Amino acid sequence: CLSAFYMRMKVKMSRVLIKRLIEEINTMTHKEMKIMEVCGTHTQMISKLGIRSVLSPKIKLLSGPGCPICVTHEEDIDTAIELLNHNDITIATFGDLLRVKGTKSCLLDEKSKGKDVIIITSPLALIQMAEDNKEKKIVFLGVGFETTAPIIALTIKTAFEKGLDNLFFLSSIKLMSPILHYMFKQPNNQIQGLICPGHVASIKGANYFTFIVDDYHIPAGVCGFEALDILGGIHHLVKQISENEKIEFKNLYKRCVRPKGNPTANQIMKEVFQVSQGEWRGIGKVEGSSLIINKKYERLDAVKYFDVKIKRLKQVTKCACSDILLGKKVPKECPLFNRGCSPLHPQGPCMISTEGACAIAYQYKEE
Ligand code: SF4
User: Fold this and answer.
1) CA of 172 to the centre of ligand 1 (A)
2) Which residue puts its alpha carbon closest to atom 7 of ligand 1?
3) What ipTM goes with this model?
């Protein structure tokens, strides 16, 4: 039938385009270059599609700070564990976070000791859960970037408007642009091109990332997650890096990303959160890089409600996750990679999360 014919033609045309993009990228590449993809989903797709294997070895694709589990600070885990010591508290969070260690323990260890830790896939499900379990106090440990912030904000607003008094929030939401500023300001920054995170861009808009070109003169672009999208993004960057062309920003993901993003999502974030200093695992404090619950909704803020005070302990670790997240190292350059650190016995969060650079490099046996 006609639709099957079009589908076959589309696949054939994609193959032709992919082949042409790879040839052009490799022909243009005359010197070594470091390109970073920030989003964990891009990291996954680059490895799954074997993109490194078809590109010139001169192109080094590095992962950036876009895996929310990997950047969650030890103190946030310690705070959740401290909260578990209060009677009747249930900690709800995303599955990958359970194995991420605080300074002493992780939520999975606490669960195995009998503490009440549950995994959820959507924060909104907590509303019903809180309504059905009035005797329980539920605390949601919410991590993520601008991508998950709107749904967490909507959950907070809904809980507030329903007057729920047994659902609280521990916000560890990070913002993408401040950490990119931080990274590019490092004296030894070697990133020459950036594939911007498509998911964050769909919320914040493509314009959110034009500062990379304007302030740092580094080629950048937003691209989607298919082979053609990613290769199109790499082509855009390599052309500018190799040919010293006028540096420009491009939105190559127009089917999902508008210049100013999603106004409804941005509005709900603005309504519920305020910008604050953020603590990044292994990196430290970054000005204006986190979202915390604002004054209007603070009765749902678990830290304030339960008056949690935790003792700050210094973490001593050989894990190189922070260097990997800032593009200074690739997973294989960590001495523990596959020698004491593996998905079964992770030593750092980059080996735990499905979006972590080390877990992905391990899964796809990357050199
Ligand atoms: Fe950390 Fe393990 Fe990755 Fe090394 S291999 S950086 S220890 S997660």
Assistant:
1) 22
2) 319
3) 0.99
